[in-house]
Specification:
By secondary structure, this protein is mainly beta. It contains 2 helices and 35 strands. The strands form 7 sheets. A 6-stranded antiparallel beta sheet has the order 24-35-26-31-32-33, with no helix packed on it. Strands 25-34-27-28-29-30 form a 6-stranded antiparallel beta sheet, with no helix packed on it. It has a 5-stranded mixed beta sheet with strand order 4-3-2-1-21, with no helix packed on it. The longest helix has 21 residues. The N terminus and C terminus are likely disordered. The chain binds beta-D-fructofuranose. The site of beta-D-fructofuranose (FRU) has 12 residues, from strand 1, strand 5, strand 10 and strand 14.
Length: 523
């Protein structure tokens, strides 16, 4: 070959190689590696989690013009708590979420804490433009720390379906000059013919109720508490009307988070059933023994959707986490996820009056598979099903005289989770002490809930890559726990300990499609 041609050939070859090397350069590689694909080993498949960075409480849950909005406490700068802003995602079915840009960023040294969003249908605020309904967010503005900490209630308005927000120029709308005064939950109350706010006085273990004609002027109506569990700060109250599934009419439920002091240690939530007459909440049951909305370790700051279509049961969603270890969870590039949305009702039966919860999951079900297994008297365990997350299972047990019976969920032969009824102790439990290889302080736990012999022995499970949500005894018990398996879930077995007679189980398993699978078309 002519030497000139050789040089030109070499330089072209070198150019191609250089371009190739540039494409593979560390920055290009790391950029590619940093783009999350929702397929990391612990990435939830049927629960919302942000693409990257930190999240805690859900905020501003509202249904508007065909979209379920999920705003959430979000740190746009990293995967630890800080710079709190409102992240934003939308969904058509509460399962397929599309993350949108940050909705309300931290500004002027003020963080945007938890709050709610209402649809101002009749422009009561005077903030809606062009004769169209607008969205109004009511949230806590948080400044400073220690002796200089201040919390006030602010509002912001959106004219474009929550995509952009303008802070109200005369904020704050409610200022008690207090360091701790937060998490306003606002909804329209027919009886009062006004907006009603339930807001936490965390250190006093109280919920204060306010009313307003226009979301700007707020008048104090009453306070509730201290009562029930008071072992930590009260946060994230929610007041809602709940239909009675077994009778007629409805009741009012007041739910409040506390941290620490939850039933399983760290954060947890209690509820009261009673009446709300437009001024104050009156519990109709003794409050001496707290009732917990969830008996797992990982359900906090659950709030309900505003403006649901007529006929829809109240629907709530919470942060699937616990302040005890939330900042230490080994997930990356995100940290924090939400529970499934749950429809709630009141059940009244021989065992008494309880809140019942049913997860919204059906739209993700693939073909169901019948399940059945039996343990003869004296037999300890039998294989039930090959399992893969995400998966849903509905199981109904006939336990004869067995003392402990339930399922054991394996990732490998040394690691498993037990979900079982223990009739000797009168409890349902989830034991994750042997579930994973991660040793996060406070994480290993066996969570318990009291059961009733008068309710059926049923278990409804939703298993994701890093959690299991358990609903039992007609949904009157919810138990939500994060899991940190070292490898994928593989199989599930029926097991028993103690007692005589056969143990039978029957039910259905539904493999679930991923909520990330069908991108929603929101824009
Ligand atoms: C509860 C909470 C709220 C507060 C928010 C701050 O998890 O402490 O009381 O508004 O988190 O991120």
């Amino acid at each position: 070959m002519n030497p000139l041609k050789v040089i030109s050939f070499l330089s072209r070859a070198c150019l191609a190689v250089c371009v190739f090397i540039m494409l593979l350069s560390p920055s290009a590689l790391s950029q590619h590696a940093l783009e999350p694909d929702y397929n990391e080993p612990l990435r939830p498949q049927v629960h919302f989690s942000p693409k990257k960075n930190w999240t805690n409480d859900p905020n501003g849950l509202v249904y508007f013009e065909g979209e379920y909005h999920l705003f959430y406490q979000y740190n746009p700068m990293g995967d630890m708590w800080g710079h709190m802003s409102w992240g934003h995602a939308v969904s058509h079915d509460l399962l397929h979420w599309q993350e949108l840009p940050v909705a309300i960023p931290e500004s002027g040294g003020e963080m945007i804490f938890t709050g709610s969003v209402v649809v101002d249908e009749n422009n009561t605020s005077g903030l809606c433009l062009d004769g169209k309904p607008c969205l109004v967010a009511i949230f806590t503005g948080h400044r400073g720390s220690g002796a200089s900490q201040q919390e006030v209630q602010n509002i912001a308005v959106s004219q474009d379906r929550g995509r952009s927000w303008q802070l109200y120029s005369e904020n704050p709308v409610l200022d008690l000059k207090m360091a701790n005064f937060r998490d306003p939950s606002v909804s329209w109350n027919r009886k009062a013919n006004a907006w009603i706010m339930a807001v936490a006085l965390p250190e006093e273990h109280q919920v204060a109720f306010y009313r307003s004609p226009d979301l700007k002027q707020w008048t104090r109506l009453s306070v509730f508490g201290p009562v029930g569990a008071t072992g930590g700060a009260w946060e994230c109250p929610d007041l809602l009307e709940v239909p009675n599934r077994t009778g007629n009419g409805s009741m009012w439920a007041l739910k409040v988070g506390l941290n620490p002091g939850g039933v399983q240690g760290g954060s947890g939530e209690q509820y009261f059933l009673g009446t709300f007459d437009g001024v104050s909440f009156l519990p109709s049951q003794s409050s001496s023994l707290p009732r917990w909305t969830d008996y797992g370790k990982d359900s906090y700051c659950t709030i309900s959707y505003n403006n649901l279509p007529k006929g829809k049961s109240p629907t709530l969603l919470g942060w699937m986490d616990n302040w005890q270890y939330a900042e230490k969870l080994p997930t990356s590039p995100w940290r924090g996820q939400m529970t499934l949305a749950r429809q709630i009702s009141v059940v009244q039966d021989k065992a008494g009056l309880s809140l019942a919860q049913q997860p919204v999951i059906e739209p993700l079900r693939m073909k169901g598979e019948p399940l059945a297994a039996s343990l003869a008297s004296g037999q300890d365990a039998v294989s039930l099903h090959k399992v893969e997350a995400p998966e849903e299972m509905d199981l109904s047990f006939k336990p004869s005289n067995a003392s402990v019976f339930g399922v054991r969920l394996y990732s490998d032969e040394e690691h498993w989770v037990e979900i079982a009824f223990d009739r000797t102790s009168g409890i349902l439990y989830t034991d994750r002490t042997k579930a994973g290889r991660e040793t996060v302080e406070g994480f290993p736990a066996k969570t318990n809930a009291p059961v009733s012999e008068d309710r059926p022995w049923d278990l409804h499970l939703v298993l994701d890559r890093s959690s299991v949500e358990v609903f039992a005894q007609k949904g009157t018990i919810a138990m939500t726990n994060l899991l940190l398996p070292a490898s994928r879930w593989t199989r599930i077995e029926l097991f028993r300990r103690g007692g005589r007679g056969a143990v039978d189980v029957s039910g259905t398993a539904w493999p679930l499609s991923s909520g990330w699978s069908t991108p929603s078309d929101a824009h």
